[in-house]
Amino acid sequence: MTLAHRALFTWFIVLVFFILLCLRLEPRTNWNWFVTFTPLWIFDVIIIIYVIIKFIRKWRNLSRLTDLLFLYKWNIAGVLLTIASQVMICLRLEYPHQIPIYVTIAPLILLLSTAIFYVGSHLGKREGWLQ
Amino acid sequence: MFKLSELVRWLGLTEFEILVNLCGLLVFTITLAIKLSGENAGNSLGGLNGMQQEPTEDWFTIFSPLFFIDICNAYFCVIVGIRMYLDSDNKRKALHRFMWSTYFLVLIVIFKYLLCLKLSSKMGLEYSEVFSPIFVLLQLVAVRACQLPNSI
């Protein structure tokens, strides 16, 4: 898929999610939060398939699994932390008094920290801060 | 799904702006968690004492990291806009970039402000009205996605 296709697909998923979120936040509707997050689950499944396809395509050139995991460490960490964050947020919203807030946001904080480190290292390499 | 360079190209944000936004989001998440845990503790204490405890922090205080990063990004965009306009031969491109950054920042700030008002119960807005700047921004992002070249 080209960048334009991927961008438009992501845009559509985000649009549907915001529409569902608006409907859910109104007091008239009382849907399950896991249902509200359906577009994001679909997006996660597609991202997992995308990462697996990348994995398999690279598998031919690399013999050891550890090399492959190391090569795609950012992708794997990003996908797993995103899914964990969404699940924890849904659980917290659905059962507000059973899960502590610090447990809920732990994957999210980890995800944001990883993203900051990733973007920071990219920026640092480009600007020559990390030489 | 996207490389960082592709996101930069699509959203029209620089890597530095993305980094600042991520840092602000991290701080906001932590302050939100502190507020929510304080409210939970307050509710349980209030329930025990038979009275409701007043929330300690205002929603605008909780959202202050996000407003702060918007100010930082606005400053950055103004500096980049002026330098691009003065240094570059393509003035039109510099203006385009400045206008896009302005739209992006203004719509995001309006959304956050409306959300703060809604959460503070100061205005009787519906959530669809609160989210309207985000929907406008999504339309603009869709237009940008359509302008991306098909060869990448």
UniProtKB/TrEMBL annotation, chain A:
Pfam families xref list: Tmemb_185A
Transmembrane annotation, as ranges: 7-25, 31-53, 74-95, 101-120
Keyword Transmembrane helix: yes
InterPro entries: TM_Fragile-X-F-assoc
UniProt entry keywords in alphabetical sequence: Membrane, Transmembrane, Transmembrane helix
Protein name: Transmembrane protein 60
Organism this protein belongs to: Drosophila kikkawai
Lineage: Eukaryota, Metazoa, Ecdysozoa, Arthropoda, Hexapoda
UniProtKB/TrEMBL annotation, chain B:
One Pfam entry name: Tmemb_185A
GO biological process: intracellular calcium ion homeostasis
The entry's keywords: Membrane, Transmembrane, Transmembrane helix
InterPro entries, alphabetized: TM_Fragile-X-F-assoc
Transmembrane segments: 12-34, 59-86, 98-115
Gene Ontology terms: cellular component: endoplasmic reticulum
This protein's name: Transmembrane protein 203
